[in-house]
Amino acid sequence: MNMSTLLKPTVLSIGLMSVIGCTTMQTAPKDMSNSATVYYNGNIITMEGDQPQMAEALVTQAGKIAYVGNLQEAQSKYKNAAQINLQDKTLLPSFIDPHSHFDMVSNTMGQVNLNPPPIGQVDSIPKMMQTLKEYKVDNNIADGDWIFGWGYDETQLAEGRHPTKSEIDKVLPNNPVYLQHTSGHMGVANSKALAMMNITANSKNPAGGNIARIKGSNEPNGLVQETAMYPFVRNMLEVLAPNQGKFFEQTQEYYAKNGITTAHNGSTARNTIQFFQKQADAGKLKIDLVALAGVSDLDENLADKNFVWKTYQNGFKVQGTKIVADGSPQGKTAYFSQPYLTPVPDCEKDCRGLPSVSQDELNEMFVKAYARDNQLFIHNNGDGATDMLIKAHEYAVKKTGQAADKDRRTVPIHAQFARPDQLAAFKKYNMVPSFFTNHTYFWGDVHVKNLGKKRADFSSPIATADRMGLRYTNHSDDTVTPVDPLFSVWSAVNRTSRSGKIIGKNERATPYQALKAITSNAAYEYFEEDSKGTLTPGKLADLVILDANPLTIEASKLKDIKVITTIKEGQTIYQRPVQ
Question: In 3D, which of 423, 341, 337 has the Cα closest to residue 383?
């Protein structure tokens, strides 16, 4: 595994960013945006069409792609252009992030990393507690201050369970502590944190959520799931808000070093939208950033005459609205039509997970959004949540009198366990599912155990979706898994689990299909197919140079391909240091 891309962002010096290789491939000066540049002698994959197409040369000028085709013609037409010899490296349109959480990635820089290998080192509860204890000391955190952790995964802990409030209390008795689960759909709080959020034995479970209890009592054990965790997450974001500016540049570097020039932020609060726009207006964006507004703000956002949708303002735009319809499959809160096969905490029978909203609520959300041409992105993991999504769509088009197949590009986010009939509905209604094949590696073994082989094998079914003619994307959902597009390509092509098992051999994608999901199809998801996603004259010169060709390298080595250069509108924004 490419460990360097699984690590969280680290500060890159200006010196490293401007390295020009001497013994390796000649690289572009940092700013080639106005003069013409010819790229040649490499694997130039245009990403146009359903089958791979190659070109001899590509020319960029004034931040756009000026020419793609024959090398002799390119050099004849652009006689004074700079010449970049790719030396058999691979040139592609840069990667477009279909779904991650830019703000949460940034916030992790103010939290303790509790991930299991290969992302972190926490593989047991004692090690987790020791890590928390050391974090307080190493960061000089005073008693009474909040401590936040991220990325713990009970399925990868030796104990096979969540930590409890009492275990955290023993090592951090004087601080409120909240630990975010790797799924982003639950967390564990200690006694001080529960008290500060007013959660007691008398607290009732909120709709669509669960406050886990100590067995045989109503006393909370620290675990809060789905809507029950929302107060903790809101508080965390407020506490960490002063650090947003501090980590903004560092977070962009993290995306750029992974070849991404268009990043994503799911479910963005109004104050965070304002922060992002302020950063953009100050000229601090070196990549494009696409945000989704939160559905809880839908009425206010739609009523706000100054709120701008679907339009970049200095590199930032709010594309649409994010709805969360269910939870996490590995956390057993994703909503299925058939029960889980293993015990579910705080559930005795017919344990199918939790819808986060009622069908009536979801219906009305769709009506409001469709009536105002507001693009919807709906988190739906289980097929039960997908049924709800499809019903809400059908209700809304009937209520608004719109065509069911209007080009609105509703995006089912994750859609991991969509059934074949649901894929057919996506196709019928012009929906663009965004799959999550990284799950086949990180939790494929867990899904087989919890859901059975049939459901697990058909998770994130890119091969079937492609045969059906669906436009699909594939994402990392960072901070859930690292925003490494080449790892996502590897997981889509190999579908290999942690234990080395193949999770759904028939759903293995081809490398080209996996690349479409993060280039041309990803541009389509954002209505940006006219400006991004393929190497086509007139489109933005958003490019990535790789050290190997994903179409020809051995499939098992796809994750080891390294990004050499990332270029945004003709400017080099990341250059891999010479090794």
Answer: 337
Which CB contacts under 8 angstroms, 24+ apart, belong to 251-255? 251/9, 251/102, 251/105, 251/106, 251/109, 252/285, 252/286, 252/287, 253/9, 253/11, 253/12, 253/574, 254/8, 254/9, 254/105, 254/483, 255/97, 255/102, 255/287, 255/483
Two structure tokens written together for 259: 């070849």
In whole angstroms, what is the distance from residue 290 CA to residue 297 CA?
A: 17
CA distance 413 to 468: 18
Cα separation of 164 and 480, whole Å?
A: 21
List 90's β-bridge partners, or say none: 43, 546
> From the CB of residue 438, how many other CB atoms can be counted at a distance below 10 Å?
24
pLDDT digits (tens, 9 = 90+) for 453-462: 999 999 999 9
In DSSP notation, 368-405 reads: HHHHTT-EEEEEE-SHHHHHHHHHHHHHHHHHHT--TT
| Residue for token pair 């080449």 | 486
Nearest in space to 154 (alpha carbons), one of 119, 116, 111: 116
343 touches 550 (CB < 8 A): no
Helix (H) or strand (E) segment spanning residue 323? strand 316-324
pLDDT tens-digit map of 471-523: 999 999 999 999 999 999 999 999 999 999 999 999 999 999 999 999 999 99
3-state class (DSSP) for residue 315 = coil
In total, the chain counts a number of residues equal to 579
CA distance 566 to 254: 12
Mean pLDDT of 76-98: 97
CA 125 – CA 21 distance, rounded (Å): 45
Judged against a pLDDT cut of 60, whether residue 33 lies above it is answered with no
Task: Give the predicted TM-score (pTM) of the model.
Answer: 0.89
Q: Residues 6 or more apart from 370 whose CB is under 8 A from it?
A: 376, 396, 397, 400, 402, 408
Q: Are 24 and 72 a contacting pair, CB within 8 Å? A: no
